TrEMBL record, chain A:
SMART domains: AAA. GO terms for molecular function: ATP binding. Signal peptide: none annotated. InterPro entries: AAA+_ATPase, ABC_transporter-like_ATP-bd, ABC_transporter-like_CS, ABC_transporter_ATP-bind, P-loop_NTPase. CDD domains: ABC_NrtD_SsuB_transporters. It holds the Pfam family ABC_tran. Residues 19-251 form the ABC transporter domain. This is ABC transporter ATP-binding protein.
From TrEMBL, chain B:
SUPFAM superfamilies: MetI-like. Its main location: membrane. Keywords: Cell membrane, Membrane, Transmembrane, Transmembrane helix, Transport. It is found in: Cell membrane. It comes from the Bacteria. InterPro entries: MetI-like, MetI-like_sf. The chain crosses the membrane at residues 46-75, 87-113, 119-138, 159-176, 182-203, 215-236. CDD domains: TM_PBP2. Pfam families: BPD_transp_1. This is ABC transporter permease. Residues 53-233 form the ABC transmembrane type-1 domain. The keyword Plastid does not apply.
Length: 269, 259
């Protein structure tokens, strides 16, 4: 793969992972005193890997993702992406998909996908061609002229994924992207995301509170504890790819899912 | 019967009564001159009415620029920045409740009895609702949209121009509608109080000499200005807020998109 080869040549020494987080701590002040949200979080995500962060609500997993996106600053620690620190949003390196699709209601699907390119003042022809290609990728080639209110929840989130990919960043971050969808759509979207991931070979970090979703999607699951948020388990998911719906009924799937549950249910003190 | 047809019938009934009541002697002509008489006076003295209409319309136009321009700018500032908001919003909200018309005599002292005092008064009168609506519109923008724009590397200027302004358009438009209506009210009221030209002046002058048909001819013209403004606003709203009208006919994407 050309991009990886170039990356390895440029960066010396070669980075161990696309994303490297070390010594990340985050505390914020409240009226009751300081709250430790993240405690000594370290993680490495290899190039092209699909990592899922799972944990109880309020464990700081979304905060962690916002920090990876450069949208929030940590109190201490370092975040490297493609060998360079993340201090501010950098759409060249990182695309972000939020829980809500957050599409601009006054723009068509195509213009929404092209929006990051509009911000960079890319030529109109290039914007449209890129955005159209991304809509094709997510299976919405025929919805380009529709407005968000004319799209279903799943379609909106697919547009949002297309927008996250339009600048071709090596990393895609997703913050509980399917949490607002109904169960059926959610299953279909998981499958769809894996297909898109296989087609683009992005490095993916995916935050969720769904154990099933975590095991179904991930190469590796990082389990976080309740506040203060720490990574208490790194669980490789050895299930073969492509993943299928039938795997969810397997004993192996159940065992992996149970291992996460046991830790979230009784967090280490 | 459709609401539109009922509306048309009500308007027709009002026009018929306007003609029939004075003609039948039920209402004295001094109180209500027949529609036909009013229109005849309007036509016979058209140069005078046209000149007055021109004066009023130009005052309205200039005051609209000040009220709307100032209202949008200040509203964007007050709505978008916490400092100015805490400083100004309580003051502006309180001032909005003051009957500003008490300031009009002061304005004639400052600007004279010509167009300037009308423009000044109507500008201030229309400024407050436009400004408050814009501030409210900007404050109600979904913060998630701004976060998303930031994740895509949008600069503060890009967030203002490409996210905040388009998102604020529906609220701003309703502010414009209110502000514009008040500008018309402000100009006409000012003309009726202290003036030497314009429709309001014409109406007041005709009233003092008990010339009812001319009073009603003037009222008719003010009505036309208000209706014209409403139609213009509807046109602007249709142009600007296409996306907010859910349920509009869907285009045929497959046919419209060349690939």
């Amino acid at each position: 793969m050309q991009p990886l080869a170039e990356l390895n040549r440029d960066a010396a020494p070669a980075p161990r992972g696309m994303i490297e987080v070390s010594g990340l701590n985050h505390a914020y002040a409240t009226r009751q005193g300081p709250v430790q949200a993240l405690e000594n979080v370290a993680l490495t995500v290899g190039q092209g890997r699909f990592t899922v962060i799972v944990g109880p609500s309020g464990c700081g997993k979304s905060s962690l993702l916002m920090m990876l996106a450069g949208l929030r600053a940590a109190s201490a620690g370092q975040i490297l992406c493609a060998g360079r620190p993340i201090t501010a949003p950098d759409p060249d390196r990182v695309g972000v998909v939020f829980q809500e699709a957050n599409l601009f209601p006054w723009l068509t699907a195509l213009d929404n996908v092209a929006f990051p390119l509009t911000l960079r003042r890319a030529p109109k022809a290039e914007r449209q061609a890129r955005a159209r290609a991304m809509l094709e990728l997510v299976g919405l080639g025929d919805a380009a002229t529709r407005y968000p209110h004319e799209l279903s929840g799943g379609m909106k989130q697919r547009v949002s994924i297309a927008r996250g990919l339009v600048q071709d960043p090596p990393v895609l971050l997703l913050d509980e992207p399917f949490a607002a969808l109904d169960e059926q759509t959610r299953m279909a979207m998981g499958e769809e995301l894996l297909r898109i991931w296989a087609a683009t070979r992005k490095t993916v970090v995916f935050v969720t509170h769904s154990l099933t979703e975590a095991v179904y999607l991930a190469d590796e699951v990082l389990v976080m504890s309740a506040r203060p948020g720490r990574i208490i388990d790194r669980m490789p998911v050895p299930l073969p790819r492509p993943r299928s719906y039938e795997m969810m009924a397997s004993a192996e799937f159940g065992r992996l899912r149970d291992r996460i549950w046991q830790q979230i249910k009784a967090p280490a003190r | 019967m459709s609401p539109g047809r009922i509306r048309a019938l009500i308007i027709l009934a009002v026009l018929v009564l306007w003609e029939a009541l004075p003609r039948s002697g039920l209402v004295p002509v001094l109180f209500l001159p027949p529609l036909s008489l009013t229109l005849a006076v309007l036509a016979a003295d058209w140069p005078t009415f046209a000149a007055a209409l021109g004066v009023t319309l130009s005052e309205v136009a200039v005051a609209l620029v000040f009220a709307v321009g100032g209202g949008l700018l200040t509203g964007a500032l007050v709505g978008g920045l916490a400092g100015p908001r805490r400083l100004l919003l309580p003051v502006f909200s309180s001032l909005y409740a003051v009957p500003l018309v008490v300031l009009y005599p002061v304005m004639t002292a400052w600007f004279g009895i010509g167009a300037e005092s009308k423009i000044a008064f109507a500008s201030v009168y229309g400024f407050f609702p436009t400004m408050l609506a814009t501030a409210a519109g900007i404050r109600t923008i979904d913060p998630q949209l701004l976060l998303t724009a930031r994740s895509m590397g949008a600069t503060p200027a890009q967030r203002l121009l490409l996210v905040i302004l388009p998102a604020a358009i529906p609220t701003v438009l309703s502010g414009l509608r209110l502000g514009g209506a008040l500008v018309i009210v402000g100009v006409v009221v000012a003309e009726m109080l202290i003036a030497s030209a314009g429709i309001g002046y014409l109406v007041t002058f005709a009233r003092t000499v008990l010339d009812s048909p001319r009073v009603f001819a003037g009222v008719l013209l003010v009505l036309l200005i208000a209706i014209g403004f409403d139609l213009a606003m509807r046109w602007v709203e249709r142009r600007c807020a296409l996306w907010s009208t859910a349920g509009r006919p869907q285009s045929a994407p497959a046919a419209a998109v060349p690939t």
